[in-house]
């Protein structure tokens, strides 16, 4: 029972730490505005991450292309999560390239990349960031711990204030994702 309760108590502490730093909300607004500007210019948002962060990347994209809270027009967002693409690139070039190769295929100047990594150090996300830079794609990072290598590479980094387990950071990330979608809905239409 205590271990179960501890999950909620830790989550409460991480959320409180995030809430008490106004820089997080400035960063979220900047990130939301970059996304709004891209969508208004006919560009798109591409999201990626591994494991639970892939689920978050998919969650983000489907609520923009599909539906969040209210009926509105479909918005251009896609997660890099096609298993056939990922198995081909993983098999032929290596797992480090599953996201970057996709960005090479469909990324355009003016798009936005949302890279999600609780360590900030996943090589495949870092490689996608590299391609994004080459193509003139803005980079927004959801990170954790010390931000890892992603910290220096993102145009906007939003970092979950945790130093232990990935799940605590992911719980902050999903709140960031929902607040970004809400911001986009309010400002893009
Ligand atoms: O969802 C979880 C943990 O909550 C795991 O599946 C986690 O996402 C995986 O271990 C990832 O490979 C971790 O990658 P990253 O967040 O460090 O980029
Ligand atoms: Zn998880």
Automatic annotation (TrEMBL):
Its cofactor is Zn(2+). Residues 35-189 form the SIS domain. Its main location: cytoplasm. It comes from the Bacteria. One of its GO terms (biological process) is D-glycero-D-manno-heptose 7-phosphate biosynthetic process. InterPro entries: GmhA/DiaA (IPR035461), Phosphoheptose_Isoase (IPR004515), SIS_dom (IPR001347), SIS_dom_sf (IPR046348), SIS_GmhA/DiaA_subfam (IPR050099). PROSITE patterns: SIS. Keywords: Carbohydrate metabolism, Cytoplasm, Isomerase, Metal-binding, Zinc. Zn(2+) binds at residues 59, 63, 170, 178. Pathway: Carbohydrate biosynthesis; D-glycero-D-manno-heptose 7-phosphate biosynthesis; D-glycero-alpha-D-manno-heptose 7-phosphate and D-glycero-beta-D-manno-heptose 7-phosphate from sedoheptulose 7-phosphate: step 1/1. Substrate binds at residues 50-52, 63, 91-92, 117-119, 122, 170. GO terms for cellular component: cytoplasm. Binds 1 zinc ion per subunit. Transmembrane segments: none annotated. GO terms for molecular function: carbohydrate derivative binding; D-sedoheptulose 7-phosphate isomerase activity; zinc ion binding. It is found in: Cytoplasm. Catalyzes the isomerization of sedoheptulose 7-phosphate in D-glycero-D-manno-heptose 7-phosphate. This is Phosphoheptose isomerase. It comes from Solitalea canadensis (strain ATCC 29591 / DSM 3403 / JCM 21819 / LMG 8368 / NBRC 15130 / NCIMB 12057 / USAM 9D). The lineage of its organism: Bacteria, Pseudomonadati, Bacteroidota, Sphingobacteriia, Sphingobacteriales.
């Amino acid at each position: 029972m205590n271990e179960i309760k501890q999950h909620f108590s830790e989550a409460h502490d991480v959320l409180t730490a995030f809430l008490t730093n106004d820089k997080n909300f400035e960063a979220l607004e900047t990130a939301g505005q970059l996304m709004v500007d891209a969508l208004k210019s006919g560009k798109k948002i591409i999201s990626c991450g591994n494991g639970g962060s892939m689920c978050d990347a998919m969650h983000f994209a489907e609520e923009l292309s599909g539906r969040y809270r209210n009926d509105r027009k479909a918005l251009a967002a896609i997660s890099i999560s096609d298993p056939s693409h990922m198995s081909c690139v993983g098999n032929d070039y290596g797992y480090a390239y599953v996201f970057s190769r996709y960005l090479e295929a469909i990324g355009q100047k003016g798009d936005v990349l949302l890279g999600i990594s609780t360590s900030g150090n996943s090589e495949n996300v870092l490689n996608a960031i590299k391609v994004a830079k080459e193509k003139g794609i803005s980079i927004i990072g959801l990170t954790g711990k010390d931000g890892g290598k992603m910290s220096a590479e993102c145009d906007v980094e939003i970092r979950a204030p945790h130093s232990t387990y990935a799940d605590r950071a992911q719980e902050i990330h999903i709140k960031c994702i929902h607040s970004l979608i809400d911001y986009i809905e309010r400002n893009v239409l």
